[in-house]
Design a protein that fits this description.
This protein has 163 residues and is of the alpha/beta class. The chain has 7 helices and 7 strands, in the order βαβαβααβββααβα. Helix content is 39%, strand content 15%.
Length: 163
């Protein structure tokens, strides 16, 4: 089970992120009893520093690594100026799920097909064991044309270069 988003009303400062972490631990316990894993999906707003700390670090540091895993969206982590591999090294095994979408090389840093942009997926995939990655999902929020053309480009790149 994945918490996919925190609304702006749920981003009320680091103390509120600590409360969310406690709530995630509770959800993680309930999910574990039901035989499923609880995860949290990031965007870029978790990397807007507050009091010299990232909310994402608050979530990672205040959740039980056995109860709460992370679904890392590699696009949003990269767009926020963060290094996925650094996060893998700091929190090994916490990232069993990945979202793959690439970032184009324009000032807008728009979504693009995997392998068609600036994210170094080969380097990231070389660290998949450290991250704990079990599954990845190709996701492209907006496509320049047919979504079928975009998914074909992404999956062709992935099969040829990553798996």
């Amino acid at each position: 089970m994945v918490c996919a988003w925190l609304s702006p009303k749920e981003r009320l400062g680091l103390d509120h992120y600590k409360k969310m972490a406690a709530d995630f631990n509770t959800a993680g316990e309930k999910c574990k009893k039901a035989g499923i894993q609880f995860c949290y999906h990031n965007h870029d707003f978790e990397f807007d520093k507050q009091d010299d700390k990232y909310p994402y670090d608050v979530l990672l540091d205040n959740t039980d690594h056995n109860l709460v895993k992370m679904e890392m969206d590699l696009y949003w982590v990269t767009k926020a100026g963060q290094d996925p591999i650094k996060l893998f090294n700091q929190h090994p095994g916490r990232f069993p799920l990945w979202h793959l979408k690439d970032m184009d090389n324009t000032p807008a840093h728009a979504f693009t097909e995997v392998g068609n942009g600036t994210i170094d997926f080969k380097k990231i995939f070389a660290n998949r064991e450290k991250s704990g990655m079990k599954y990845f999902f190709v996701e492209q929020d907006k496509c320049p044309g047919s979504p079928f053309d975009s998914i074909t480009k992404s999956i062709t790149y992935i099969k040829k270069n990553l798996v």
